[in-house]
Task: structure prediction
Amino acid sequence: MILTTGPFWTWPAGVVATLAYALPALAAHRLGAQTAQRLLWLAWASHALSLLGLLVGGLHFGFGPALSVTAWLMLTVYIVESQLYPQLRARWAMGMLGALAVLLALIFPGAGMHMARSAWLPLHLALGLSAYGLFAAAVVHAWMMTRTEQLIRTGRDADTGLPLLTLERLTFNFVYAGFVLLTATLLAGMVFGEQLYGHAWRWDHKTVFALLAWLTFVVLIVGRHRLGWRGKKAVRVLYTGTALLLLSYAGSRFVLEVLLGRMS
Result:
């Protein structure tokens, strides 16, 4: 088990974020909507402070921080959406995912990255992680869409707070935005790989899974527009593409850092 060695505030901020995430997830009905919303705001701010510790004294990165940044971006999307759609209810899912992601980043903070390779490396990572965050948001909305559809079919009231068509539209908006950023990330890796990482394009596990994910999202977008894919079929393809994307960086880093014990 690897414990983070970042600034003094990293652990306290992470612990506060974990608790603030977990309380709305585990006791949302007792807390009330307003208190739960405030706790999520506290979690968002504390989470950001803990992530800032990864940048102080040199960038540290690995599968834990990658998942943590993804969860933070997803919560940012949720906070913005909850202002536009006050009836949106997904605090349980946001809280549980956020708490788990923060804990993983604290326990497995990854290794230091050599910025001497390229000053553009942080931007390249930001593009990739933004794509992660958008596809994660798409998955959460797809889950809510599936749940809403199931409740409607069984004659029960949907508890997500948004109409089915609105959830579907939001899901694919996130897919489209994530696809653009993922494409930009892959192109940057192909064209500027030597400047970014000190070596040319490699057909390693990370690259193969990323390309498979990209092709899966191409199939999803074409299937939706040409074949009218909706509902379970579209959601299954989205889940498949996101799983492949998760294996690309976070999965490969998990194998290196945890299973093989290699930090470089």
